[in-house]
């Protein structure tokens, strides 16, 4: 529960100063809280912009770069960014080919991105939007009407980003983003609560010996609490919850995502169990990404996101990407 | 303190099964606990082998691949691997150009790699060894005579790996490894203890409101305990401890490393403070890597490693690398 911070009020600004120091290839506007590709605007390329509350790093700032996002707008911890940030980002990255807003389904995010879209359009920017609402755990939750946006965001940002990098026009990039958002589902589990800088203590109580199934990425309540389960039992529950909803009829891409506080050693063990369950259900995982990508500060736990992978999406997934948090290919 | 595991006895094997599932480009021998580049042995290339207790992931298995390690030998959690693992790894990766063992300075690791070197040489493999002993916090500690081997291991594996990938012969790769090991120093801080699977509870007591300065990567005692400090105060202490010993007369490479349980948001904020201190001391950090690389399970905290960077080392650092845990370049 102790935190490596100065004061809660400067946590986001401090982190942005650190990103600026570590990643000279990015342009980080600390004051206005916008992280931009250093080479933006990229001529004739559709620009991708996402954002949301801080505390989920590397999402979204860590996904800014070649083949993924053009800009990210971080809010305060677990708090929506404001429309001015998105408008400023749009002005910085729009080459004239338009921008796509990638929005996780939280009421504040949706509202503020909507407002920003209107404002940017008033300034002559063509704006498309895609909503990510992949969490099958619950419908309507704290901060959310409908399903929450979680791990699928990474797939949307990666694959729509690849399409944009290849030169696809705005309608096509938007269509890819919608296709991915419609093809990916998630389920998360918490073994511990997270601690926000402002509160300084765990955001909810999770007694020793219990876990929460279907947790959101801010510690929103899930489906149920149970006595602690093994990694294998959790994988059974989480993968089945996703498969029940997704019903893939072919191979999938898998994200075995840590919530922040669970060691990589344990995440890889969990990935083995996720693969076992998928094999038992006759589902092939053609790609598996394991690590802390869509986190919830120091929460212990993990989520599973599966994305139906046809040839097009597999190609877009494999396309080169160069960001602080995700990087492969030529 | 709750863990995403099946039973403590299978944690390492489970993680290796997960690595095999997620990284088809690696050859993972789960039974014998050896992780090998899928294309090994690489013709005419010196092979790099490292290993150590598990619980520090992505070190070492996550650093196997093009431009870094050829093989890694994971022991039980916080327990040295056995000589048979290194001998088996050497047989799998030696192309005839010889192997370099990269050994963190822990008594068990040193002993077992020494024994393995003798055994491999008996089988006709040319073996060189380099010891990493970079932690300036204390001399002689739990498990260690002399200084502990910590974050500098990443620099040694990366830069010696780049030299080997370029085709340097064994003596040259060994010389690079020694040069890097002699050019890098570290200092770590714990805000919380870690929890090993076997124990299931924190390995030491760190009261609320206190931190441990100079911690090792297994929770070995550090220099002193103090009342909780800000990120900026910790950066002052850690960077000065490293600079006092390293006394760089030019630019450095910086690793701002998370111990596992500290969110990336906080690590970036800490990186900003590390840069501030370096700037105040007149030291330029030409490259800064921020993230969880040499971890201690779920311990909260961070370490700073600085490496003197002449032209040669900067070139080897920037050279392409493709591993699960570190990846950049063409």
UniProtKB/TrEMBL annotation, chains A, B:
One CC-aspect GO term: cytosol
Organism: Streptomyces armeniacus
E.C. number: 2.7.1.121
GO biological process assignments: glycerol catabolic process
Regions annotated as coiled coil: none
Protein name: phosphoenolpyruvate--glycerone phosphotransferase
Keywords from the UniProt entry: Glycerol metabolism, Kinase, Transferase
Catalysed reactions, semicolon-separated: dihydroxyacetone + phosphoenolpyruvate = dihydroxyacetone phosphate + pyruvate
Pathway: Polyol metabolism; glycerol degradation
Domain of life from the UniProt record: Bacteria
Organismal lineage: Bacteria, Bacillati, Actinomycetota, Actinomycetes, Kitasatosporales
Any one GO molecular function term: phosphoenolpyruvate-glycerone phosphotransferase activity
Subunit structure: Homodimer. The dihydroxyacetone kinase complex is composed of a homodimer of DhaM, a homodimer of DhaK and the subunit DhaL.
Residue stretches making up the DhaK domain: 7-328
Keyword Electron transport: no
Glycosyltransferase listed as a keyword: no
Top-level EC class as recorded in UniProt: transferase
